[in-house]
Amino acid sequence: IFVIARAFKDGYTVDQIHNLTKIDKWFLAKLQSIIRYEQVLTRNMGTGASVATIPDDVLRAAKRLGFSDKGIGRCTGTTESAVRETRKDRGIVPYIKRIDTVAGEFPASNNYLYVTYNAQEDDPRVDDTSAPASQQEDSGVYMVLGSGAYKIGSSVEFDWCAVSCVRTLRALGHRAIMVNYN
């Protein structure tokens, strides 16, 4: 992928790279747009620029394309923490969205969530509680780390364990969530 990124920087087109690699043009076009935006950030912001000079729309567009705060900092010659602080101060934060597992046939009420900058509002209320109010204690919130993506050799027993842990914590009156890295 780094070779393809270098080829885009050197002026190769999507068609040229497709002919050489047979990678789907849709994926190549997406990668090309990221490379172009990296060049825009570097060229227009200039290294050594103050993070305060990055316009909101430029910062938001970079986040929507998937740039990390560290990546934006690298392109603009500033630090990851400076970009993060500025972004948060300006209200450029991700939104929580619910995965529609029923393709819009009826309202989805699952707890499969993801975080994105490509949204305007959260799907679930951020202050939703996971245990009935009568059972809630002021003992903090627990986060259970899931097993992530399934791989050859792993199975659903890992997710079963994580989900069982969350259910037990909720039954004991604690607020709990499960986070997968995928």
Can you walk me through this structure?
α2 crosses α3 and α5 packs across α6. The chain has 182 residues and is mostly helical. It contains seven helices and four strands. The longest helix is centred in the first third of the chain and has 21 residues. About 3% of the residues have low confidence. The strands form two sheets. The protein has a two-stranded antiparallel ribbon. Strands 3-4 form a two-stranded parallel sheet. Helix content is 43%, strand content 10%.
Topology:
Layout: H1 2-9, H2 14-21, H3 25-45, H4 56-64, H5 69-76, H6 80-89, E1 95-98, E2 113-116, E3 141-145, H7 157-171, E4 175-179
Parallel strand pairs: 3-4
Antiparallel strand pairs: 1-2
Helix pairs in contact: 2-3, 5-6
- Percent helix, as a range, is 40-55%
Structure class:
mainly alpha
> What do the pLDDT scores average to?
83
Proportion of residues in β-strands: 5-15%
Q: How many helices in DSSP terms?
A: 7
Major β-sheet annotation: 2 strands, antiparallel
N- to C-terminal distance = 20 Å
Low-confidence stretches: 131-136
As laid out across the biggest beta sheet, the strand order is 1-2
Report the count of strand segments: 4
Q: Which value, in Å, is the CA radius of gyration?
A: 21 Å
What does the overall shape look like? globular
One letter per element, helices H and strands E, the order comes to: HHHHHHEEEHE
